[in-house]
Amino acid sequence: MIIKKSQTENFKQQSIVGRKYHIDELVAERIWVYGELDGEHGERESTGIPRIYFVIEGEGCVEIGGQKSEIGEGDLVIIPPNNKYNYWSKGGILKFILFMEKH
User: Fold this and answer.
1) Which of 12, 23, 24, 27 is deepest in the core (most CB within 10 A)?
2) For 58-103, what is each residue's pLDDT tens digit?
């Protein structure tokens, strides 16, 4: 299966622009997201499944359950289920891929 860029759904919210890759045929109710963050994402709470971020490029910080960590290219960030989190870029655009629940 190949999902072409032309088959993706563009989105823009707060400080993020990106594309959603729908993969329902392989994994029900899950989605891959490519995003570019310039600023702060804003606090969210994960649902009953983990959210998994892979940092492609840039530097930033993530706060999960009150614990802050720096992140950068090649890092994998796993947000455990039912946790509050936030992340932000440091001095430029943070590019990432996210595997999460579809909503």
Assistant:
1) 23
2) 999 999 999 999 999 999 999 999 999 999 999 899 999 999 988 7
